[in-house]
Design brief:
181 residues, alpha+beta, Chalcone isomerase, 4 helices, disordered N terminus
């Protein structure tokens, strides 16, 4: 059920980037430009990095910018972010959520942008990517939390099956909790 509700929040998968709809717990609008205008377009179908160093670079360059997302940031329902969070779901994961799957395929990945009290200034990310077709109780997911500091990405937590992340996310469908619930 949760996955089905979440799927309503996701942008259509047919290359159409129009929002389908979103929950009522809407946060402040967030700059959606993804950086400077001369930034090269990101391919949303490129695999989510599975190595921590690559993932850090991917976050800093907003490699997830073209992933299906909600139209705006939303008020967080968990420990992430201060005033707002915005979830980006790799097309593989978005399709799986859309289908209402309780298990997602390898390569499914999500990035949650975290915003400060003003609701628009991003200060970091929480992210996850599934490393194989079996979750193995969350051990087969790479978990990562990082903050931006002076234009640099600093990793706070990173690793497979992180005990800090897994127990809470175990409540979701295959460790994806969803936003705007
Ligand atoms: C106390 C519970 C809790 C813990 C612990 C937690 N999360 Fe989350 N997480 C959430 C909730 C709730 C959401 C849904 C978004 C929201 O409402 O903020 C979420 C969303 C996410 C998302 C977006 C994909 C999804 O599941 O919807 C990622 C990625 C994520 N968290 C990564 C992490 C990482 C990495 C850690 C460990 C460093 C972690 N989380 C620890 C509760 C938690």
């Amino acid at each position: 059920m949760r996955a089905r509700r979440l799927s309503l929040l996701l942008v259509g998968l047919s290359g159409c980037l129009q929002p389908i709809g979103f929950g009522t717990k809407q946060g402040a609008p967030v700059d959606d430009t993804g950086g400077s205008s001369d930034e090269p377009a990101k391919d949303p179908n490129a695999p989510v990095p599975t190595k921590i160093a690559d993932f850090v670079e991917f976050l800093g360059s907003r490699g997830y910018a073209a992933y299906p997302t909600t139209p705006t940031a939303l008020v967080p329902t968990g420990p992430h972010g201060v005033a707002a969070v915005r979830g980006y779901y790799h097309p593989t994961l978005a399709a799986s959520l859309e289908a209402g799957n309780l298990e997602h395929p390898a390569g499914a990945g999500a990035v949650l942008e975290l915003f400060k009290a003003d609701g628009v200034t991003r200060f970091g990310w929480a992210a996850s990517v599934k490393l194989g077709d079996f979750s193995d109780l969350g051990l087969n997911w790479l978990w990562l939390e990082a903050i931006e500091s002076n234009g640099e990405v600093k990793v706070l937590e990173a690793g497979e099956g992180l005990g800090l992340c897994v127990p809470c996310h175990a409540a979701g469908d295959d460790f994806i909790l969803g936003i705007g619930r």
